[in-house]
């Protein structure tokens, strides 16, 4: 069996796994006043503590290390509220993405109607680039142009 720890605000409630009527609680080798199965810590300061419970002298002792973080102004959320928040966030994010996509698409279509742009008629084919005479390929019958370019000896 295990301890049951419940946290609400700054109150921590610990339930001992023992089922006997008289239970002795200890915290850092100090015996506590409570003799019940539940030990309630009011205004817990979030400091770690070693807590144990036993049913009497020489009986089985259960010990635990309590490291509970508490706060006075915290709000508890159930699973349904967390699911709703995450779903709403995803829907809003996808909505913004869709709006940006559509406004971006229409803006791109209007760019051609501005004053400084050319009319968009049929695409004209560009003529091939003018060949550079310094890099013409060697053709048959034109070897004399390159006759002076003989390999040099190193």
TrEMBL record:
The UniProt keyword set, sorted, is: Cell membrane, Immunity, Immunoglobulin domain, Membrane, Receptor, Signal, Transmembrane, Transmembrane helix
One Pfam family in the UniProt entry: Ig_5
Subcellular location as annotated: Cell membrane
Which InterPro entries does the annotation name?
CD3_esu/gsu/dsu, Ig-like_fold, Phos_immunorcpt_sig_ITAM
One of the entry's Gene Ontology molecular-function terms is: transmembrane signaling receptor activity
Q: Where are the transmembrane segments?
A: 79-103
In Swiss-Prot or TrEMBL terms, this protein is called T-cell surface glycoprotein CD3 epsilon chain
Q: Per the UniProt entry, what species is this protein from, by scientific name? A: Bucorvus abyssinicus
């Amino acid at each position: 069996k295990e301890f049951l720890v419940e946290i609400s605000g700054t109150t921590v409630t610990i339930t001992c796994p023992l089922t006997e009527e008289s239970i002795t609680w200890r915290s850092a080798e100090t015996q506590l006043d409570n003799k019940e199965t539940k030990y309630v810590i009011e205004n817990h300061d979030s400091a770690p503590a070693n807590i144990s419970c036993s049913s009497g002298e020489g009986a089985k002792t259960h010990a635990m290390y309590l490291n509970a973080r508490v706060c006075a102004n915290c709000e508890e959320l159930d699973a349904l509220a967390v699911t709703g928040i995450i779903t709403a966030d995803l829907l809003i994010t996808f909505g913004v993405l869709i709006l940006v996509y559509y406004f971006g698409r229409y803006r791109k279509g209007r760019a051609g109607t501005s004053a400084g742009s050319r009319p968009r008629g049929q695409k004209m084919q560009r003529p091939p680039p003018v060949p550079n005479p310094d890099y013409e390929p060697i053709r048959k019958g034109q070897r004399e142009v390159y006759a002076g370019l003989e390999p040099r000896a190193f």
